[in-house]
Amino acid sequence: SRKNRDNRFERETLEFHQKVRAGYLDMASTDVERKWVVLDASQSAEIIAARAWNAIYDFLLSVLRAAHEE
Length: 70
Description:
Elements: H1 2-6, H2 14-30, H3 45-69
C-alpha cells in the first residue's frame, strides 16, 4: 500500500542510512565539477537556508556566465 511505501526509508536501519550518507559524501568530495553542496544540518535553520540559497545563487550565476560565453 502507499502508506507502507511512504515509510520504507524510515524503517531502514541506522547502518543503511550511514552507508547512503557516506556514498553521497563520497560523490560530493570527488566531483571535480563541484555540482554538490554539503550543508551542515546541525546549524540553525536560518544558517542552513542562507547557505542553500547562496549555493543556488552561485550555481545559477555560473549557468548564466556559461551561456553568455557561448
